[in-house]
Design brief:
alpha+beta, two-stranded antiparallel sheet, 8 helices, single chain, globular, 8 strands, 6-stranded antiparallel beta sheet
Length: about 240
């Protein structure tokens, strides 16, 4: 866990420096120089740089070094994963503000057939049904509806849901939420969307729905996020070279 903390510290600081445009000509120092500057091993530097490359924030040019992706600086995504969890509290930033959380409801009930299939549960196994709102500057931009197996987090309380659920899961299970399968669509807003997200009847809503997995492959959550269309902005970086 100590090595994990070192790598995350380097990753977070490098990303902040990139966002602050500290690197002249968009070129990062070499791995040895970064290791010396951060007083960490080169393996920690390499791991942090690999994550930044996977996110499309930097790219490595053979024989020339490592550079900041200028397209990233020009069109930064609103979801910027800074750690190894995929939750909204862990990854969402807007003008460096972290979303506030409002818990709407927290209940337990048996999983229905679809939830059993999605989360590999037996009949009548209980799930938490969690509904929350996310806010920036006091204004709601997202509603969340999530189902989580009770057996994975047997001591979860309503108070725990005022912070990151995925960070709570990592602290209690020692496993991170690192994988997801999500569908991203847009559809006409409902009356509930309009009331919660301050949308007009003719305005659409962004919908992200799917399944999140722990790093050992265990299905952790199935859920849906409904997002004000003004906040639906993403970047995609795809690589087939294995880096």
């Amino acid at each position: 866990m100590e090595q994990e903390a070192i790598y995350l510290r380097v990753l977070t600081d490098l990303k902040q420096r990139i966002n602050d445009q500290e690197f002249e000509n968009l070129k990062l120092p070499d791995e040895r120089s970064l290791a010396t500057a951060y007083e960490v091993s080169r393996s920690s530097i390499k791991r942090a740089l690999n994550v930044l490359a996977q996110q499309g924030i930097i790219f490595k040019k053979r024989g020339s070094g490592t550079f900041v992706n200028p397209i990233y600086l020009k069109n930064q995504t609103m979801f910027q994963s800074t750690g190894h969890n995929l939750g909204v509290s862990d990854s969402f930033r807007f003008d460096d503000e972290v979303p506030a959380i409002e818990l709407v409801s927290f209940e337990q009930h048996p999983a229905d057939d679809d939830t059993q299939l999605a989360l590999f549960l037996q009949p009548d196994e209980p799930v938490y049904h969690i509904q929350r709102l996310r806010q920036l500057k006091g204004k709601t931009f997202m509603s969340e509806d999530a189902l989580v197996p009770v057996k994975l987090l047997p001591n979860l309380t309503a108070a725990d849901l005022n912070a990151s659920l995925f960070q709570y899961a990592e602290m209690t299970t020692k496993k991170a939420v690192t994988r997801s399968f999500l569908s991203v669509t847009a559809e006409p807003s409902t009356a509930k969307d309009q009331a919660e997200l301050d949308l007009a009847p003719n305005e659409p809503v962004g919908v992200m729905g799917g399944i999140y997995f722990l790093d050992d492959g265990t299905p952790f959550e199935v859920g849906t996020m409904r997002v004000h269309y003004k906040y639906m902005k993403y970047n995609s970086f795809d690589s087939l070279d294995g880096e």
